[in-house]
Design a protein that fits this description.
The chain is of the alpha/beta class. It has a single domain, classed as Rossmann fold (3-Layer(aba) Sandwich), CATH 3.40.50.150. It is built from nine helices and eight strands. An eight-stranded mixed beta sheet has the order 3-4-2-1-5-6-8-7, sandwiched between helices. The chain is globular, with a radius of gyration of 23 Å. The model has no long low-confidence stretch (mean pLDDT about 90).
């Protein structure tokens, strides 16, 4: 019997050849990615100082400690981006989780720190945290950030934080941004952080086709007796985040993305995008944006990229 008689059919040989080419291609891509890593901001001295401050937070239990350690790079970067007080010294933290909250006063020097959380309009809760054994308490106003008028007067705050919140909104994110603009003084700043749905990880997940492209797409386990919290309803690209803030009448001061270390396996996607002519900017998994209130800027209440009929 000849070799031709026992060789695989042509279509199987073609498939094997294609798989070999594909494996060789991705091997080269991983080598190239190692030589030309995705650019991202290096940790600045301010971030290191912020991290040192945050490590003074008193945490109880292994679960809280594990969460803190996992998200510490994001928390430190966020704290480092918060501008120091220059005028009234009032700051509002939307979705107040008490992780960076004590340091807004004791590290950055804000004289009045206010929190906000979802709940019945007009109700006020009080949350506490400890730093090196020292107790910190804050009043947290409850309201619906997508529907209610925030319970603060016009121009009351110097800074507003909207951290890891906008991706959870169900129906009207521009309402939240417009209310943040209203309660900010002229020239005040809003800091928004959120996952980036156009990250290298999202690209890789989409191409593989097995996982959801959102950075976090899971539902929470039901917790009897505790209020339900919406999952990530809609994650944004960094460019969409910029467009949303501009639609709400803000001037962008800075916007960038950073990679999440545990997702670094997806770094080769940067080289893939570069070699095929796709945009390679703003591809980190975490987006950060600082924007300034400018009353003279126009407002688009329902930008078409974000709202349908």
């Amino acid at each position: 019997m000849s070799d031709r008689d026992i060789s695989p059919p042509f279509h199987l040989r073609a498939i094997r050849a294609a798989l070999r080419r594909l494996n060789s291609y991705f091997s080269r891509r991983y080598e190239s990615a190692a030589a030309h890593p995705v650019p991202f901001p290096q940790p600045a001295a301010e971030v290191a100082q912020a991290e040192a401050q945050l490590r003074g937070l008193d945490l109880s239990g292994n679960v809280a400690r594990a969460y803190f350690e996992k998200h510490l790079p994001r928390l430190a970067r966020t704290l480092a981006l918060v501008p120091r007080p220059r005028t009234g010294g009032r700051i509002l933290e939307m979705g107040c989780y008490m992780q960076i909250t004590p340091f807004l006063h004791r590290y950055l020097g804000y004289r009045e720190v206010r929190g906000a959380y979802h709940g019945p309009l007009g109700q006020v809760d009080y949350k506490t945290a400890g730093v090196h054994g020292e107790r910190f308490e804050i009043a947290v106003d409850l309201f619906d950030a997508e529907n209610d008028r925030f319970p603060y007067s016009d121009g009351y705050f110097e800074t507003v934080l909207v951290c890891e919140l906008i991706e959870h909104l169900l129906s009207d994110p521009i309402h939240l941004l417009l209310e943040c603009r209203r309660v900010l003084e002229e020239g005040g700043r809003v800091l928004v952080t959120t996952p980036n749905v156009a990250s290298l990880t999202s690209v890789a997940r989409t191409l593989h086709g097995y996982d959801n492209p959102q950075i976090y797409s899971k539902y929470r386990h039901p917790r009897p007796g505790l209020p339900e919290e919406p999952p990530h309803v809609r994650e944004y690209t960094a460019f969409e985040l910029q467009a949303a803030l501009q639609a709400a009448g803000f001037e962008i001061e800075t916007i960038f993305t950073e990679p999440i270390a545990e997702l670094s396996v997806n770094l080769p996607m940067w080289t893939f995008l570069e070699e095929h002519g796709y945009n390679t900017s703003m591809r980190g998994e975490q987006s950060y944006c600082v924007a300034v209130k400018r009353s003279e800027l126009p407002v688009t209440r329902y930008p078409i990229f974000l709202y349908g009929d």
